[in-house]
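Appendix B, record 7
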Amino acid sequence: MKRRYDLDWIRVLATIAVFIYHCFMFFNPWAWHVKNNQTDPTIITGISLFMSVWLMPIFFALSGINSCYALQRRTGKQYLKERLTRLGIPLLFGVLILTPPQIYMERVSHGQFSGSFFTWFPHYFDGVYLDIGGTGNFAFVGLHLWYLLVLTVFSLLTLPLFLKKKPSISRELKPLHLYLLAIPLMLVTSFVDIVNLGGWDISIYLIIFLYGYFFLANQTFIEVVQKMPAFNMSVAMVTTIVFVYGFMTGMTDAGVGASIFLACVKGLNGWSWLLVIFTFADSKLSYTNKWLNYGNEASMPFYVLHQPIIVTVGFFIAEYDWSIQFKLLFIIITAFLIIMFIYQFVIIKVSFIRILFGMKGNRRKTIDIQTNIQTEEH
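Structure tokens (predicted):
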């Protein structure tokens, strides 16, 4: 089975995009763990809105695709074991080690605590952390690592369905049929409110996870998508403008009708961007090189580590009298260098630390596997 390098590129680039998005969170007006002494309600907020629509859906679509491929060469038991190991261990490590400092910095920056981290730490298990600025401290989802928890739950819930039904798409599929799949996203975005994470209700992520498995992993589906790149891009651009403008002008508070309209636009926008991104990657990024190999292995540790580092850097410079532009550049560069230093000189060197960050424990074995895959395919 030929490896799809386009999916690797999407994963690596999406991980970098999440990093940039969380750097923006320090400056936009939305609630976050640590905020700058000045915020930007215009450009940075607009970019944040644009990114929030497709960013986390990309990860769940990729996870659905990977589930499809994984179950072609693994039993259900092997699949679950791999998911629990590669997702559960980093989640547990994040909850116990990486999350407490972030909660502490949030409490200090919000004026909810005064004192050292070691004075505060015994209170980490006081109550359940439910929202930014709340009173509970124990963040069982690991803050930004909620994705790992949700994906683990989705993997458990959907396995019986995946084992029973394999992806199958008729050759009669027409290009415009693709947008019928946007209807459930539009309806759920408009009327379902269970738990909001990363800009979407959790039910949206389940739908996109299923779409990844049943549709985006299917070559026939991708071939149909490739027939309408200009149309998909047009829909994506128009709905982006409408959504960002509507959100920033207060349409969500302009009545039920306006709110439902904007929710429908958001659902359509998210789906159209997924089609655009996967089409572009399939046609332009179906190759590998040394940067992809490095980034593909580093993406999970980078994801696990990026927010704690961003929050820490932001915590120490929040009150400095620097311009927003300079602080943004400073955070991006400083946090990126710190993350890569820790990855390059600590994480990949020690087997048990690699496992904590969702990597295979034996680095030599990982390199050999990648080399064999590339040799077989070329």
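Remarks on this record: Residues 5-377 form one domain. DSSP finds 14 helices and two strands in the chain.
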